[in-house]
Amino acid sequence: MRTETALAPLYRARSRPTTAARCCTLVLTASALLASALRAQEPQPRADSAATLAARTVTLVGVVRDTAGLPLSGAEVRAGAQQFTLTGEDGRFVLAGVAPDTIQLLVRRIGYKPADVILEAQAGLRVELAVKLVPAATELGTVVVNGRKMDLHLLQSGFYDRQKLGLGTFFDADYLEHFGGTLSGLLYQVPSVRVRYDRYHRAVAMGPFNGFSLCQLNIFLDGIRTGWAGDVGLDMLLDRRDILAVEVYPRAIQVPAVFAGYLSSSQGATIPPSGIPSPNGIPSPNGGGIGIGGGTDCGALVIWTKPFGADDDAH
Question: Dihedral angle at the C-alpha atoms of 176, 178, 181, 186, nearest 10 degrees?
Answer without folding.
Answer: -40
